[in-house]
Amino acid sequence: MSQQPALELSQRSRWAKDQAISFLMQQAVENRGVISLAAGLVDEASLPVSECRTAMNDLFSDDARARHALQYGTTGGADVLREQLRHHLARLERCSVEQLNLDVKQLVLTTGSQQLLALVADALFDPGDICLVAAPTYFVFLGVLNGVGARAIPIETDARGLNPQALDAELTRLDAAGELPRVKLIYIVSEFENPSGVSIATERRREVVALAKKWSRDHRLFVLDDAAYRELRYDGEARPSLWSFDEARDTVILAQTFSKSFSPGVRVGMGVLPKSLVGPVCDLKGNDDFGSPNLNQHLLATVLASGRYESHVNEVCAAYRLKRDAMLAALDHEFAGVPGVTWLRPEGGLYVWLTLPEEIETGFSSRLFQLATKTHRVMYVPGELCYPAGTAAVRKNQMRLSYGVQDAAGITEGIRRLAAAIRELQT
Ligand SMILES: Cc1ncc(COP(=O)(O)O)c(C=O)c1O
Fold this sequence. Notes:
This protein is an alpha/beta fold. It has 2 domains: about 10-45 and about 310-425, Alpha-Beta Complex (Aspartate Aminotransferase, domain 1); about 50-310, Aspartate Aminotransferase, domain 2 (3-Layer(aba) Sandwich), CATH 3.40.640.10.
């Protein structure tokens, strides 16, 4: 038999190998019948079927508009949507469009905010460069950093989000070690963080932006404000964004998405970029796809113009509020008073972050994960995935629970099963 020639893959494909997200998706497929509290998918019942039907009918009632939407678009995105998003952003920021101080070209439309995160990583990092990340953080972004050979350094957080003093201390340490030139970005999921549910405190937002500017000595240190869950607030007052504290608009990149508040199938995300990054990000995007799906952008523009978007978001929030409350009630029921078991109460988003006693590990190869998925048929995301691997920050006794997909009964049953698995482990 003749020998097959060796497969010579790129360094980047080796860096991207074995991402946790693929393993999790695989587990979900292989373990049908398991109640998934792992998936960060959105609530099926509240997807905007009638809003999209009406908008599509409207768009397709005019041949010229429909043809325009069915044609390729531009790399930066459809102008009609970018202009609307400027107004949308002004509403979220509670200011006038003029006060935004933002050229419409600084709004770059992407295939979900995930693409924006990947493009920013591509634009900033050479192998060995450094990204400072809140610990814990969005594990898919850790995969993106791995994929470009960047080093993720964890920064301590608490119930008020990333700690600016710890950030300053780490930057001081990196400076002393001669590594400051390699630090390019601070990454924070600012609202109802995936995975912890925490929103960084307002004062800390101001401090983080000030620190990024203070340490931008020979090169600019950017902040990536990933506000994917911003519009999913169920209680309390909205906070000013990290981006709003960057008055010069040269330091903070704001990433938002319509996947959570509207539909992930439509997959429209946006980046609000400092002027200096618009060219580099669009150049990379040009190589990638020279424009995200135009039809989806025109569909979203039609929905926004119809005024139906806001009422949809209100409905979605009402549905998630009930689910969040169901999960918190179930956790109370199963774990109140159990030593070493704690969780945070999120004001929005899709996640509850659960900490177990130190000795209970939650990882893919742990007894708990096996017991939970195989015997009790419930799945969660192991918390250790949300820390940069191999760092001292990694904690093995935590998990991310999502109330996005299940209905209230599924959530209650899921938490009951999880508690049963944990009890079984302790006996
Ligand atoms: C924190 C965070 N950022 C970004 C994304 C990407 O979402 P999308 O690409 O659908 O906008 C997600 C998706 O779950 C997320 O949780």
